[in-house]
């Protein structure tokens, strides 16, 4: 009887631990601010047509990206992409930075995965 009671408590504790890990992962995947998600969907829709289907596909796409790339890394990649278009020395710094290129590559891989899953 004692062993069964202890096993029951262990199983219950493991269930609570697993549930909290799932919640933590969901919160990590949802750390993108609403404005950032909306901006991504807006840009995606401009590139893929402004239809109901594109809303659903682009919303799916940002969810996939958010599940793969942490928000801070996303901001780094977006900044690098934006600043790399600037002419002159400032733009060169962003085009040649290993850290910026790595963040951009991470974002592009996540977007490719989103393309496969959502479009």
Number of strands: 0
Q: How many strands, which pairing sense, and closed or not: the largest β-sheet? A: none
**Helix amount, in percent?**
over 70%
Number of helices: 6
Order of helices and strands: HHHHHH
Describe the global form: globular
Based on CA atoms alone, the radius of gyration comes out at: 20 Å
Signal peptide: 1-26
Protein name: Lipoprotein
Organism: Bradyrhizobium vignae
Keywords: Signal
Characterization of this structure:
Mean pLDDT is 84; it is low at 11-16 and 19-24. The chain has helices spanning 2-29, 34-48, 52-68, 71-83, 89-96, 98-118. It folds into two domains: 1-30; 33-118, no CATH class. The relative contact order is 0.10. By secondary structure, the chain is mainly alpha-helical. Helix 2 crosses helix 3 and helix 3 (52-68) crosses helix 6 (98-118).
List the topology elements:
Blueprint: H1 2-29, H2 34-48, H3 52-68, H4 71-83, H5 89-96, H6 98-118
Task: Explain briefly what this protein structure is.
The chain has about 120 residues and is mainly α. It is built from six helices and no strands.
Short descriptors:
119 residues, mainly alpha, 2 domains, globular
